[in-house]
Amino acid sequence: MTKNNNLDCLIDYLVEKYSEIYKDKYLVEKYKLTIQPEEIIEQIDLFKNIKNQKSKNKRNKSNENKKKKEIRDFIKTIDSEEKLYEYYRLHLLKYYDKSRDKQESTAVLNEYSKEELKYLYSIIFKVPLKKSTKKADILWAIKSYFDNKARVDSMRL
């Protein structure tokens, strides 16, 4: 038996004993028992329903978190700096477009999970990021890398 089953059996046993005691008028008056056994059963059922709902919510939240951490397949196909640069130019550079308003820029950033941006970052820098790093900071590091690389390439000519 699990712990919850033992607890349920204990609660059922106590309710049963309380019901038996409640039938004796002398004990009801002596111990001033004012709660009906049916009320106790209702409260216990309500408590169990709330407890079950909370555990379901926790499971749903953990499943949602797992889904957020997955990296989409088309991002996993980016495995070199050249592919990342092409993808960056076509998709991620929109975040820094001055003609867009703040909501459009934020929408571009919200298209990507933090894990996906960390993956893209790791292609370039080969160093893991801190967990507290923000998505905008990761994107800024990628942008800075490609801007600086372009500047160095222009100086070589």
What features would you highlight for this structure?
single chain, 157 residues, mainly alpha, 8 helices
Give a structural overview.
The chain has helices at residues 3-23, 25-30, 37-69, 73-76, 81-92, 102-110, 114-125, 135-156. The protein is mostly helical. The chain has two domains: 3-69; 73-156, no CATH class. α1 (3-23) runs antiparallel to α3 (37-69). It is rod-shaped, with a radius of gyration of 30 Å.
Brief rundown of the structure:
The protein is mainly α and 157 residues long. The chain contains eight helices and no strands.
Number of spatially distinct domains: 2
Shape by Cα distribution: rod-shaped
Query: What structural class do helix, strand and pairing data support?
Result: mainly alpha
Overall pLDDT confidence? 84
Low-confidence stretches: none
Helical percentage: over 70%
What distance lies between the first and last C-alpha atoms, to the nearest angstrom? 77 Å
Percentage beta strand: under 5%
- Using only C-alpha atoms, the radius of gyration works out to 30 Å
Major β-sheet profile: none
Number of strands: 0
Individual helix count: 8
Oligomer: single chain
Give the helices and strands as they follow along the chain.
HHHHHHHH
Summarize the helices and strands and which ones pair or pack.
Blueprint: H1 3-23, H2 25-30, H3 37-69, H4 73-76, H5 81-92, H6 102-110, H7 114-125, H8 135-156
